Prior knowledge:
Two copies of one chain form a homodimer. The first copy, chain A, is α/β, with parallel strands linked by helices and about 325 residues long. Chain A has two domains: about 1-45; about 50-255, P-loop containing nucleotide triphosphate hydrolases (Rossmann fold, 3-Layer(aba) Sandwich), CATH 3.40.50. Helix content of chain A is about 55%, strand content about 10%. The first copy, chain A, has helices at about 1-15, 20-30, 35-45, 65-75, 100-110, 125-140, 155-160, 175-185, 205-215, 240-285, 290-300, 305-315; strands at about 50-55, 80-85, 115, 145-150, 165-170, 190-195, 225-230. Chain A has a seven-stranded parallel sheet with strand order 3-2-4-1-5-6-7, sandwiched between helices. In chain A, strand 2, helix 5 and strand 3 (about 115) form a beta-alpha-beta unit. The termini of chain A are far apart.
Amino acid sequence: MKQLAAAHQLVTAVLKGDRRAIARAITLAENGTRETRKTVSLLYPHTGKAQIIGITGPGGVGKSTLVEKLVKELRKRGKTVGVVAVDPTSPFSGGAFLGDRIRMQDLSTDAGVFIRSMATRNNPGGLARATKDAVHILDASGKDVIIVETAGAGQSEVDVIKIAQTIIVILAPGFGDEIQAIKAGIMEIGDIFVVNKADRENADRAVIDIQAMLELSNDEGKWRPAIIKTTATTGEGTAQLLKEIEKHKDHLAKGEAELRQKNIVETELTEAIKQKFTEHLMGELRKSGRMEELVSRVLARDIDPVGAAEELFTEQTGKSGSKAE
Amino acid sequence: MKQLAAAHQLVTAVLKGDRRAIARAITLAENGTRETRKTVSLLYPHTGKAQIIGITGPGGVGKSTLVEKLVKELRKRGKTVGVVAVDPTSPFSGGAFLGDRIRMQDLSTDAGVFIRSMATRNNPGGLARATKDAVHILDASGKDVIIVETAGAGQSEVDVIKIAQTIIVILAPGFGDEIQAIKAGIMEIGDIFVVNKADRENADRAVIDIQAMLELSNDEGKWRPAIIKTTATTGEGTAQLLKEIEKHKDHLAKGEAELRQKNIVETELTEAIKQKFTEHLMGELRKSGRMEELVSRVLARDIDPVGAAEELFTEQTGKSGSKAE
């Protein structure tokens, strides 16, 4: 009862945009306790108003500097901004150079900006969950724009960034190998591509490379991702990037927004269901000693792992474990 | 019946080390059909003999060149080798420069070497599953050593590489940001660290950086990861790396090997169980229209995604959906 009252109090404070309450709510989300769930479920009806922008790309391309410049540009236009960084190389997460971290500090004294880096944990599912909760909390708190920053092209990063309405993939000249990596992972999900460090000589080459890749996957009538050149250190190109973000938002408003929102919700719901059910199932299997027994049989090579899973499935559901062709 | 006979025939050919049969079995694994499961389950009792080495690291550090040199070194010692590349930047997967790909070709004409790149698919769970199956197939086919190459520090890559008995993390000088990224993801899982491109001036700096990070997580009595400098383009350091791999193998043989194998099996089994049960659950929820209904309620913000998952869980199991503190 007391806990519930505390949750309500916290929720009221978050809805008012209280910084300390927001920080506390996100910490609860990171811990993933029962109190968290109550808080997020009370906040959820108040979400859906913020514009959510995702920024991703390999380490070293200048993502964080660009985020910083974007935040400043948005502030100039009177928008309040939330930043959630799940990037281990980000100065927000304490990963990068001291200089970057100092630069970020003048942003964090601005009451219209809330910056939070998510702790990297051993449980990647937990981090993804907590990051999405942080976005919901900032959304409910009334921030106009929320920027989610992730690094790398790994599947978990891609899953997290998919919560955004507009996804920006940032690269730098000379990152040929990285572009190759991205091809496989985040190329398809980029709504806008940025070639940062555009003052370098081979910037145009990078633009052409990206263009060539996009040509291949271009569909008529669909949004055609723009490629913007920026120099984050000087801020050049940031205003143009913001313009392109607005253009993408307008494009979505013409009809795609609903489908996109449905996909975002469906993905988040699917993950939540999977996590809930498998967490319970694995707990039961461990408690009953059934897991230990199956591990022994696989270790003895009496059965292969997938075969063991299918046997267990048939046993518990009475249904055939094999996928029919 | 006919299908079963075909599976048996394929299995017999794989066990003899027949190249075309191995290739066909891995293609089946990529497709993830019922036939695959039969094939892998028949092969599984014949696995467990190969030494499995995992190689991971960011794009551009020279992973593939190092793999190539390692294979040649192993061949000199009379070992047969299988290579499974799940690295989008790898020349094996067709991602990298033409020059690399040509260099690899003289390996693929060697009957003692089997190289396979796994197709990147939209379903990362499927790719991880197929990669593990490919390792089992090569193991059963009698290859002495199997090298699994992955790129990046994403969670799915880490999950795949964990099938290896010895994990090598490869970096290059000047990859400071990458090292930061790795800190969060694969630093803890590396048994051996390689600083490639050791002919570059700041190679020693990279070694010191890695050392500093390892100090922090050093446990008494445990294996202490070595840091090896290599120049993959000339082959320098490869022999030393191989020596270190053997040293690690000997270390495992002193007692840790069993625990490690148990962890590998447990991880693979857990993934297989989760996939089997959630695949079925999600299928049912879609078929019954329950998923659609839940998505609508979340879209209307009547309920949050995790709340919806908990409601569903209580409904189906009669148990409380909330995690007690």
